[in-house]
Design goal:
With about 725 residues, this protein is of the alpha+beta class. The chain folds into three domains: about 40-175, TolB, C-terminal domain (Neuraminidase, 6 Propeller), CATH 2.120.10.30; about 185-335, Methanol Dehydrogenase, Chain A, CATH 2.140.10.30; about 475-735, Alpha/Beta hydrolase fold, catalytic domain (Rossmann fold, 3-Layer(aba) Sandwich). Helices cover about 15% and strands about 35% of the residues. The protein has an eight-stranded mixed sheet with strand order 37-38-40-39-41-42-43-44, with helices on both faces. Strands 1, 2, 3, 4 and 5 form a five-stranded mixed sheet that branches. Strands 14, 15, 16, 19 and 20 form a five-stranded antiparallel sheet that branches. Strand 39 (about 515-520), helix 6 and strand 40 (about 545-550) form a beta-alpha-beta unit. Helix 1 (about 5-15) packs parallel to helix 13. The two termini are about 35 Å apart. About 50% of the residues are buried.
Length: about 725
């Protein structure tokens, strides 16, 4: 998916707050400790409810994480596993693991994931390609694997008897109490893999695993992925000391996808059955789940055109299935993680069929029992279910799209929503089976704070208070921390659009400031929200720029109609909305209308190019990072969801081709940036524009980053380089410096 990448967006698209007595420099933005303070990531509640575990960056190295814990009963949090004690971090990860982390936008090192067994006896910790097991009772850490290959996508089985993992394209299990590993598959090699999620599933469907344990631990469902029909697109991986050619299997729009089957293996007998997904192999396996009793495997089958999503219930023993629910949409159907089988055989489901994403309860045969949530607002995510109290706990922006809270609703007797968290900011949550939750709150004045809460929403204890007070990394710059200005404006057709404005420190309303529009603009992404903003954009404010952000049509937290405005016409209505936003900015009394720039990365890079090449563009300069410049070069699932296949929408593809618009580009107005090892938006997207600009003798600037992929740049030094390159460019183009 063309998503905002963490470091790149942090350094480029940016977000945040204005100045104070002490100036925040770009160098400090990229120094340790991180300015946002100690934050808890990957929060999990132990199965016995006595402990909370989470990932926390080292103070001296913000990109290296350790595993921490806090006892619910009280006491100070403590480090459970020091990543440096187990690994030097110097190991070169396999290409498969690098790609997997790239798809998941994981940029940290050290401990980046972990998992509890459901009995709460063990914590499985993958680290630099090997596996470690923490025995909770005595705190002893045992190394489980030490192999040349990387063990990826590791899990503890539901009853805690095994660990499972994929290595070299095959699926393995190993008893936690020792013994040799067992290969559940052996045929994986070349274009064939087992237990993996293919590029498209990871990048565009948010499915990062290819195998699933039954709750009874008696069987495993897993994928068989055949990529032999997928085009090999040679990609130059250019690093600091040379280049290699990667023969990447990359399914471009309109071209063949991988063929994915789902099989079920009975562990006792070794019997394997293949689930019958139908004669049409040109489909996506969107999700796989087990029923609570372990007898049924549910597969969500998404059509190639993504207009039909079938929920199929399979008998795990025979492989025979029946479609029990079908979602259709004239534009596209979304695949979410909200499907939840309940112990009584019913299940929870989310759908946009009434115009907004809401929750529903269905009988085992798929028959609708009740709609659980209603209204002109959108459920964000089903966060958890308390089956004892028969309530669903979910996150939603009910009152305004720019805030998010946690709610619960009865699924037995649907009625009024109960808010579990207060309004005023942005909440994220990890919910336990008893309804207790680890909640993380932030707002523009409050960096992320994580605490443990009762099912009623009462705080039990802090996990990471991260109070913005003396001693906090941000405290030297916090005395004049401003509140961003939020507001709405009207699109050309009258649609309401939300915006945000950030002003320079020492703002003087009588002055005229240059302004930069920080844009993403792609489907589903949301930039305008009352949350803590990454400190990165503060450097742009310190440099004297007004920053403006607008959530155009297609962005998240809005209705299905609003999000589907882009259907078959990327580069049209969202560009029109941003141009409308630019007119609004130019009309602000404190903005110099002749000094307007735009910057973006990924889809934001595409938007920056579309905006700077618009006829009579109001922008004087654009910085475009890793932009898709011709949609037939991008992958199947993302591109076809919004544009259809190239031969089905020739006019739409032609209109959004950046090279056809370059006659409107003013000399010297463009800074083009790209990672030279990008395996997502391949470098060809930028080199084709460079070639066309050179052909037309139109001067432009470029910055290329050896060894960096799409989420680039990962290192602090390169992140600083990206920011200073932007500042230098805009200072010259907008200020004349």
């Amino acid at each position: 998916m063309i998503k905002p990448s963490l470091t790149a967006l942090a350094a480029v698209l940016a977000l945040t707050t204005p100045a104070l007595a002490e100036k925040l420099t770009p160098e400090r933005v990229f120094a340790d400790p991180g300015l946002s303070g100690p934050t808890a990531k990957g929060v999990a509640l132990s199965p016995d409810g006595k402990r909370v575990t989470y990932l926390k960056a080292k103070p001296e190295a913000a990109n290296v994480q350790d595993l921490w814990a806090a006892d619910v009963a009280g006491g100070e949090p403590y480090r459970l596993i020091d990543s440096a004690a187990l690994s030097s971090g110097a190991k070169e990860l396999s290409e498969a693991e690098k790609a997997r982390r790239e798809r998941a936008r994981v940029q940290a090192r050290g401990i980046v994931e972990y998992s509890w067994d459901k009995q709460g006896r063990f914590i499985l910790v993958p680290l630099d390609g090997d596996l470690y097991l923490d025995n909770v009772a005595d705190g002893k850490v045992t190394r489980l694997t030490e192999t040349p290959g990387d063990e990826v996508d590791a899990k503890v089985s539901p009853k805690g008897q095994y660990v499972s993992y994929v290595r070299d394209q095959n699926l393995y299990i190993k008893a936690v109490n020792g013994g040799t590993e067992t290969a559940l598959t052996t045929e994986g090699k070349d274009a064939l893999s087992f237990g993996t999620s293919e590029f498209i599933a990871q990048e565009e469907l948010d499915r990062f695993t290819g195998y699933w344990w039954s709750p009874t631990e008696k069987a495993i469902a897993y994928t068989r992925v055949d990529e032999s029909g997928v085009d090999i697109v040679p990609r130059a991986d250019i690093g600091p000391s040379g280049a290699t050619i990667v023969e990447q299997r990359y399914p471009r729009a309109g071209r063949p996808n991988a063929v994915v089957d789902v099989l079920v293996r009975d562990l006792a007998s070794g019997k394997v059955v293949q689930l019958d997904l139908g004669s049409n192999k040109d489909i996506y396996v969107a999700r796989v789940d087990w029923s609570a009793d372990g007898k049924t495997v549910y597969v969500q089958r998404l059509s190639r055109d993504q207009k039909t999503l079938d929920l199929i219930a399979f008998d795990a023993a025979t492989g025979k299935g029946k479609t029990i629910l079908t979602e259709t949409d004239a534009h596209w159907v979304e695949a979410w993680d909200d499907f939840t089988p309940l112990a009584d055989g019913t299940f929870l489901w989310s759908s946009e069929k009434d115009g907004n994403k809401h929750l529903y309860r269905h009988a085992a045969d798929g028959k609708l029992i009740a709609q659980l949530t209603k209204g002109d607002w959108r459920v964000a995510d089903l966060e958890g279910v308390d089956q004892d109290r028969k309530v669903a706990i979910f996150a939603a922006s009910v009152d305004t799209p720019i805030e998010r809270r946690l709610y619960e609703v009865s699924y037995a007797k649907p009625g009024k929503l109960k808010a579990l968290t207060p309004a005023g900011g942005w909440w994220m949550a990890k919910v336990a089976s008893n309804g207790a939750f680890a909640g993380t709150y932030s707002d523009p004045k409050t960096p992320p704070q994580t605490a443990l809460y009762t099912p009623e929403g009462k705080r039990v204890r802090w996990i990471e208070e991260n109070k913005l007070a003396e001693g906090h990394p941000y405290s030297p710059y916090a005395s004049t921390l401003p509140t961003p200005e939020f507001g709405t404006l009207k699109a050309v057709d009258g649609e309401t659009l939300h915006y945000e404005i950030l002003k320079p420190p020492g703002f003087d309303a009588s002055k005229k400031y240059p302004a930069i529009v920080s844009v993403y603009g792609g489907p589903h992404a949301q930039r305008v929200a009352r949350n803590w903003h990454s400190p990165d954009e503060r450097a742009y404010l310190e440099a004297g720029y007004v920053i403006f952000k607008l959530d155009n049509r297609g962005s998240g937290a809005r209705s299905a109609k609003f999000q589907r405005s882009l259907d078959r016409k990327l580069g049209t209505v969202e560009v029109d909305d941003q141009l409308q936003g630019a007119k609004f900015v130019q009309g602000l009394p404190y903005v110099d209308p002749d000094k307007l720039g735009v910057m973006g990365w990924s889809y934001g890079g595409f938007m920056a190019l579309m905006l700077i090449t618009a006829e009579n563009t109001p922008f004087k300069a654009a910085a475009a990072g890793a932009p898709p410049t011709e949609w037939s070069l991008y992958d199947t699932a993302y591109t076809e969801r919004y544009m259809g296949k190239p031969d089905e929408n020739k006019a739409g593809y032609a209109f959004s081709d950046i090279n056809t618009r370059l006659n409107h580009l003013k000399p010297g107005a463009l800074l083009l940036l790209h990672g030279m090892a990008d395996d997502n938006v391949i470098l060809e997207n930028s080199t084709r524009v460079m070639a066309e600009l050179q052909k037309r003798a139109i001067p432009f600037e470029t910055a290329l980053y050896p060894g960096e992929r799409h989420s680039a740049p990962r290192s602090k030094s390169k992140g600083l380089s990206v920011m200073k390159t932007h500042l230098d460019f805009f200072d010259r183009k907008l200020k004349g410096e």
